[in-house]
Amino acid sequence: MTASLFTQIFLFALVANITVHCWLKLRHLRHIAAHRHAVPAAFASRISLDEHQKAADYSSAKARLALIELLIGTLVVLWFTLGGLLQQINRFCAERLPDGSYWHGLALIAAALVISFVMHLPLDLYQRFGLETRFGFNKLTPRLWLIDLFKQTLLALLIGGPLLLAVLWLMHHMGSAWWLYVWVFWMGFNLLALLLYPTLIAPLFNKFEALSDASLQARIEALLARCGFRSSGLFVMDGSKRSTHGNAYFTGFGQGKRIVFYDTLLERLQPAEIDAVLAHELGHYRHHHIWQRVVLLGLLSLGFFALLGMLIHQAWFYAGLGLIPPTTDSSPAATALALLLFFLVVPIFTFPLTPLISQLSRRHEYQADAYAAQHTAAADLISALGKLYRDNAATLTPDPLHSLFHDSHPPAALRVAHLKTLPST
Which residues pair with 254 in a beta bridge? Predict the structure, then answer.
């Protein structure tokens, strides 16, 4: 392949990507507006017209913001590649650090990440302190935001730095099969993160306290016993210090499994509804959805690393994206450049996979709902979902095609209709 041909393929994929994304967002906006004036029949008894319209306005505002983010993200990719920014950063690092060294490679990736962060920062701040505040969801203060940013940066340095250094070392020393060694290392790190995150990382950002409501704890333990589930504890997370959104989840695996409730969720749901939500989460565990997603991540990442293993030696790959091909493709800096360039542009070419991944996720949600209906009343889960949709201002009327591409959960009406067909306790 020639560099000019690859440039044309890249630009075509980029234009197709942004065109499809914009078309889907505009469809979504029109569909929400067309159904803004009436609450869907399945929710008419639980959600008022004002609440439905708030959800419509909130979802529309997020969709419009996503369009702006899409345009900025596209410009960032173009600037880094054909605009020459990545080449300038690489030259800057080479002039000030030992050329081709690990320091050169680490500085190149760090600089690119910092520039990307700064370019997206205004919209991120607007989303949190503008949009979320306007609709009454934000509880995050500027001080807490700065503290979170400091902690995230520190973790990136302490964990991300050594992780990246290890990847560059493997790419440099493991010969032509480096991509297989990197993949094994990457998957091992992800499994370790799943094990350690609940007890070491999450408590850095939120407070987790044992569930203190004795009657609720007794109900939940009875449900766990019926489901044959063992947990290392029931915890309440202070999600309310950042947002009014509510949720529940279980995390970890093996002996480290724990169940976590947002404090905002416990305030809004009745005990039977909490049982139903928890049973849904347990359904994910019982159907091995986490491990299925780990396997999917493993297969996709293996394919990506193998592809990078082929592209890293191709001069047209660099030249077609606006960079001068490295004189040697085995130095740590050269491998860092290839790694950065690849993961910068690969999302543009993988967009067609999005509806397939979303479809798998929605299938998992239906399975978890069915499991919940086996161990609790389906009506309680329907009631809980109605409150969650209402309190989180989630639109009840998403565009079906937009939902097919972007939503990890089935549309509200379809999910409730499915629950009504299920036998329950």
Answer: none
Residues 65 and 162 in one domain: yes
Residues 80/135, Cβ–Cβ less than 8 Å: no
Q: Is 284 helix (H, G, I), strand (E, B) or coil?
A: helix
State which residues form the domain around 232: 204-290+357-420
How many CB atoms neighbour CB 122 within 10 A? 11
At which of 300, 317, 350 does a domain end? Answer: 350
Measured distance CA(148)–CA(185) in Å, rounded: 28
pLDDT of residue 256: 62
Sequence letter at residue 279: A
Q: How many domains would you assign to the chain? A: 2
Separation CA 409–CA 266 (nearest Å): 22
Structure tokens at 3: 């560099």
* Residue 208 β-bridge partners: 237
- Confirm if 302 and 425 have CB atoms less than 8 A apart: no
How confident is the model at residue 424, as a pLDDT? 62
What's the whole-number average pLDDT of the chain?
A: 90
Do the strands 258-262 and 234-237 form a parallel or antiparallel pair, or are they unpaired? Answer: parallel
* 170 and 259 inside one domain: no
What crossing angle do the helices spanning 161-173 and 178-196 adopt, rounded to 10°?
160
Q: Is residue 50 part of a domain?
A: yes
- Say if residue 177 is in the same domain as residue 99: yes
424 phi, psi to nearest 5 deg: -140, 170
Q: What mean pLDDT comes out for the span 175-192?
A: 92
Q: Is residue 241 part of a domain?
A: yes
Half-sphere exposure of 288 (CA within 13 A, CB side): 5
pLDDT digits (tens, 9 = 90+) for 394-409: 999 999 999 999 898 9
CA pair distance 77, 348, nearest whole angstrom: 10
SS3 404: helix
Could you report the per-residue pLDDT of 11-66, keeping only the tens digit for each?
999 999 999 999 999 999 999 999 999 999 888 888 999 999 999 999 999 999 99
Q: Six-digit token pair at 293?
A: 């997603």
